[in-house]
Amino acid sequence: MAMVERWRKETHCFNFREGECTITLKDIAILTDLSIDGDVVCVDSTVPPKVVANMSGWQHFIWTVTGLCPPEKGDHDADGNPPLSKGQVSITWLTAEIRRKHNPEFGGIPLTEESSERDKDIYAHIYILGMIGGVFFPKKSNNLISNSWLKIILGSWDDMGNLSWASACLAQLYRSLCNASAREVKEIDGAMFIVQFWAWEHLPWIAPKVDPDKEWGPDHPLRHEAYGCR
């Protein structure tokens, strides 16, 4: 990626012929609509204790958050990864299981307004896990997510909403760019879509052409979405 090659980890800036510039917290907030204000996002990697005889600490914790118990051995998701391995859970496995649970084609019960609060919370938890592990804080596999995130998601909705997700995303993005700038590294993790959107905004000559007559009226489906979506 051309932008990664111009990243300088000493200054956290992209180095261009005309000078230096970088992605700021304001850019993250505008492009993603993530919150700037709030408490620091801090994950706890401590392995939870075993409280059920037939489940490990992480298995029981994942079941508490998602209503699903990933097997530790003998099973693999569609991408060939074990559902639970080395403190990580497979997003592919989670989404496949929740679809099977609520998809009538597989004998599941659709999620409706009449569904229990527990089912609604589980569905929301898995959706947020997918956003964290697949969009804003993805690993190189783009499929595995650290179990440590579960401890944040298990908190109240207000607590999650009061965290500074934009600053956490920016910090992770800086770390990913710094790691990828090493000559021997051939892969990169992190929210690279932000780099792409930022480049389109600040380097308009590489951005896709947009119809100048396109109106963003109040009835447009993306009118109230994050700037990056538009």
What do you see in this structure?
The chain is 40% helix and 7% strand. The chain contains nine helices and six strands. The protein has a three-stranded antiparallel beta sheet with strand order 1-2-3. InterPro entries: AminoTfrase-like_pln_mobile, MAIN-like. Pfam families: PMD (PF10536). This is Aminotransferase-like plant mobile domain-containing protein. One of its GO terms (biological process) is meristem maintenance.
List its salient traits.
three-stranded antiparallel beta sheet, globular, 230 residues, mainly alpha, 9 helices
Helix content: 25-40%
Q: What is the number of helices?
A: 9
Distance between the termini: 23 Å
Question: Any idea what the radius of gyration is?
Answer: 20 Å
**Helices and strands, in N-to-C order?**
HEEEHHEEHHEHHHH
Strand residues, percent: 5-15%
| E-strand count | 6
Lateral strand order in the biggest sheet: 1-2-3
Unreliable runs, pLDDT <50, ≥5 residues?
Answer: none
Mean pLDDT: 81
SS-based class: mainly alpha
GO biological process, one term: meristem maintenance
Protein name: Aminotransferase-like plant mobile domain-containing protein
Domain Aminotransferase-like plant mobile: 1-212
Short synopsis of the structure:
This protein is mainly α and 230 residues long. 40% of the residues lie in helices and 7% in strands.
How are the secondary structure elements laid out?
Blueprint: H1 2-5, E1 7-8, E2 13-16, E3 19-21, H2 25-32, H3 57-66, E4 84-85, E5 88-90, H4 91-102, H5 117-136, E6 144-146, H6 149-153, H7 157-161, H8 165-180, H9 192-202
Antiparallel strand pairs: 1-2, 2-3, 4-5, 5-6
Helix pairs in contact: 2-8, 4-5
Organism: Linum tenue
Pfam families: PMD (PF10536)
Protein name: Aminotransferase-like plant mobile domain-containing protein
